[in-house]
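ok posting inputs for the alpha-D-galactopyranose job
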Amino acid sequence: MSIFVNEQNGTFHLQNHFVSYIMAVLPNGHIGQLYFGKKIRDREDFSYLLEGCIRSHSALTGSDTRRLSLEHVRQEYPFAGGTDYRQGAVRIMQENGSCLTDFVFRRYALTGGKPVLEGLPATYTEDDGEAETLHLYLEDEKAHMELELLYTIFRDEAVIARSARVRYTGSGSVRIEKMMSLNLDLPDDRYDWIQFSGSWARERYPMTHPLHQGIQSVGSIRGNSSHQHNPFVILKRPDATENAGEALGFSLLYSGNFLIQAETDTYGVTRMQAGIHPEYFAWKLEEGESFQTPEAVLAWSEEGMNGLSQTLHRLYQRRLCRGEWREKARPILINNWEATFFDFNEEKLLQIARKAASAGIEMFVLDDGWFGARRSDNAGLGDWYPAQEILPEGIKGLSEKIEAMGLKFGLWIEPEMVNPDSDLYRAHPDWILRVPDRQASLSRNQYVLDFSRPEVVDHIHAMIADILRNASISYIKWDMNRSISECYSAVLPADRQGEVYHRYILGVYDLYERLIGEFPHILFESCAGGGGRFDADMLYYAPQAWASDDTDAAERMKIQYGTSYGYPISSIGSHVSAVPNDQVGRITPLKTRAEVAYFGTYGYELDLNLLSDEEFEAVKTYTDFMKEHRELLQFGTFYRLRSPFEENEMAWMVVSKDKKEAIAGLYRTLNVPNESFSRLYLTGLDPDLSYEVEGYGRHFGDELMNVGIVTSTVMSGKQNGSVCRAADFTSELFIVHAG
Ligand code: GLA
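and the output
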């Protein structure tokens, strides 16, 4: 890894074993983008890559030899209001009413490792040799502002991490109206855009379309990253597949309102941007104040989308997740939500836990309904003390009883919310987000607390920390069950109301930071009505996230498959639940439910007392299997093999780092009569190693990858000597060992 700087011609070349990222100072002092892609050797002069030209109707910036039509130049961080008619990366309103800025290059600095972004989640390094950072400093003298563009290149990954910071040095104030974390101008538009979209219970379905002239985007203005869209987009070459071809990933480390967009111009140049959504955003800077954007991670692969995902999985597992759970296999838990919903008392919980302990499950998680007057979703939210009538000896008493069974104890919280029918709201009605003299809208009977206010965060922190201090709690599920509306803070002045969405999420980060600082042993799982806040930045605090409220196995195939594009398997919260499934009424085999959930954190969300003896014995077997293989399943190299969005069958697999162990899962949606022959082609194995596939004989890696496993009779029953599929929603695992 190196950062080459040619001071004579103002060129910067970030290079590692995989990629090159090249920029140069333009004649007008702005920064031009020259290349991002597969590693190329460094050279004296890359100016031939400066393709700026002047065309009919171009407006020219600057004077004499410095004249440039910015519209035709690929730039690093374009400024609004000049001769570039595409979207700017930054727009700052000044006191004279102009938002024209002209930041010109002043100096650069190189630092080892990666700087911390104050108050924000970000990837990190553990020693300075793991990455190098280029800081480009620009200045707009007339507007009294300094801009710092940060670029970190990692030594071992095809990744560049980017962010930007602006500082105001004048008197009075300016107002940032838009400030993107990343802008990347690509020289052509021969890409398919893949976004990960859906809705509650159908999160992160990959949706693909070719780039076209104009703007295409995904974003959220809901206050969380949302069920609807995810702050992650892939651009892939049209011929790129899961295993071959070029793909670029744009991942924003931010849970608030976001925007990722591509603008393809008349000449096919594609401008990618990722950052805080400019809608509803405005940030006031007074003299000496600065604003730091969230981080965006730019990943590259020439090994298709599996290669891209593996890069992000490794980076996020090793250098975004923190703490002792970072690379540790996750406990197998049982959560009482779908088993009881709000209808439980201590004895019922203990019965569920007792049975779980006898199945080898490791942790019991008490979900919603344990506090205040929370007997339904109508009341109690915000009152973080145990309900006496349900838990006579409090959380402490319950956790001790659970631990006496040999289980760890976990707890659900929803710290950002309040029911109007709660002691907290009665005491502090002004603590919610609400526009004065207007009604605040309810969603799931709750309001959103104003986490932009430190005293609100302090109060919630005190209540939650008190519970965590006084009971033995090993896990927290942190939920967020509604979108924000009527976003307005009672304490901020009118000209700072545009800051509330961002200040809110900074408050969430702050509470997380304080709790993980004080309780480093606790495993946090984030959640937002299922997968409404499943994004990279949350992994900085909570290394796993509840992927969806939809626990049906067939639905989960799609959700987990889609999620795997941007996020590691160790982060995907996955449970076996009861049938008929609560969300879709579907009945799927217990085996399939387990075999889908294996590719995630794995747990249960049902009352095991209600299973037949045979099913209960099966649960024990599944639990043992997960204990034996979870390191590989959660931290192995993951490959998508067959897409549930394209076929009736889905397949995926994990391979150990030394390629000696692998597990593949094959899943069928609907049964097919008299069907064709079929094969499952494995990938990622060593072609020269001899492998035993449990139940399917011994084969060399090259056979398994090129000939495939004959699966025509897999998942089938035999009737009268002829093969027929046993049922809908069947699955089969292939356990592969070398030697
Ligand atoms: C959300 C979560 C569920 C459960 C409920 C409790 O919907 O996604 O798993 O915790 O809240 O109210």
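notes: The first helix runs from residue 304 to 319. The radius of gyration is 27 Å.
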